[in-house]
Amino acid sequence: MKLKRSIALVSALAVAWVTAFTPALAGVVIHDMTGTWTSETVSLEVDNQVNRRFTGVISFVDDPNIRPNIRLDGTVSESGHVSMVGNGPGVQLVIQGKLTEATIIPCVFEGRYQRRLRDGSVETGEIQGLFHEGTGSGGSR
User: Fold this and answer.
1) Between vectors from CA 73 to CA 71 and to CA 79, what angle results, nearest 5°?
2) H-run or E-run covering 24
3) pLDDT tens digits for 90-108?
4) Alpha-carbon distance 95 to 114, whole Å?
5) Which helix H or strand E contains 111, and what residues bound it?
């Protein structure tokens, strides 16, 4: 009898602990970033996403000096704010931007980037019209 009560108490405490320390995901918007994103100057391939965190590879089509592709780690907020950071041979990259829902294309990313090159120079610029074409919807799940 004592063993059954102990097991029930431990079970109840475990459920209470999990409930208290696990964020409720009901109603939370998680944007699907997986797939291919392209514009005239940038190509982004997001190959993995777990909740709000994702990883991918970006290349700047207009700049052959930023090759090979740069591996990125990123996060996306419920409101659609996206942050990405990456390192490649001779370059560090930081990107901040926002997802916007489009009427015909599921999602568009627009933002700003900062590239710190090996020689110490810093470039900044804008990424406009990065359209989602890939396996994910680019929208919310």
Assistant:
1) 140
2) none
3) 889 999 999 887 555 567 8
4) 7
5) strand 107-117
